[in-house]
Specification:
Blueprint: H1 3-42, E1 48-53, H2 60-75, E2 84-90, H3 95-109, E3 115-119, H4 126-135, H5 138-141, E4 145-150, H6 159-168
Parallel strand pairs: 1-2, 1-4, 2-3
Helix pairs in contact: 1-6, 2-3
Amino acid sequence: MPPALAAVAWALRAAVWACLAASAMLVAEAAYMGLASLAALWRRPQRSFIEFDTGINGTFVSFLQVYKLSISAACALTWPPDRIIIQVLDDSTDPIIKELVELECLGWASKKINIKYEVRNNRKGYKAGALKKGMEHIYAQQCDFVAIFDADFQPESDFLSKTIPFLVHNPKIAFVQTRWEFGKHKDIIF
């Protein structure tokens, strides 16, 4: 075999082995994350706490298109119902919006979802202030993990099973930041 052809054959063999090794690592990672997700679901007394900040100063119509979708997405999270609390922290300034959000929460509570509707009467500290206020409640302090979503965020149902294992199996990690995408309703303007 000519030397140039032998070099190409050697490079192709090396590339095939590199791809094979990368594929094996991906399979191993997927298996590990699957097992870690199952372990996270079975471990007690983990409780996850979900907080929504509904303080949107945008238009009334825009908020109406979003808050139901966001709350229903949080209520649809795949996690044991006895180990999740969903807190909707409302610091909006419009009394009509407050009433609508509260009614939405009451509707989910009637379906046996552990959802708490809390009102913050000011916007002091903005998002950090909202988090501080939300964490003042006893039920929030008893949770091992906290997930925070803005009112326009709609987490996928497997959000917790994809993120909590990173925290459970890595005690040196304090938080997990995930990618954010706009909702499916691209015509929403704030």
